[in-house]
């Protein structure tokens, strides 16, 4: 009886783990266009993305994967099989991401300058 009970427990544990992994995968996967051309190669490591065109595994997340598909940058191997549409969409998404980063940085600089000015006023 004990053995049966144990194996049921193990079955339950296995099920719970796979559900958790699936939840993680959907959390990791955003609506980023890069996921249309890649999938998680390792559910426990969101930095490993498998290219759907050439099955190459890119380490460095979906951002690097998009560079791979779009042939952008010098740090990733370029995808030999990506379609022109995929290249364009990934490239556009990369450009938007870098534009957003720049906007954020300039806002932060403005905020910091604002803090400095108010400190001068206090003294
Ligand atoms: Zn590829």
UniProtKB/TrEMBL annotation:
Protein name from the UniProt record: BED-type domain-containing protein
Domain of life: Eukaryota
Gene source species: Triticum turgidum subsp. durum (Durum wheat)
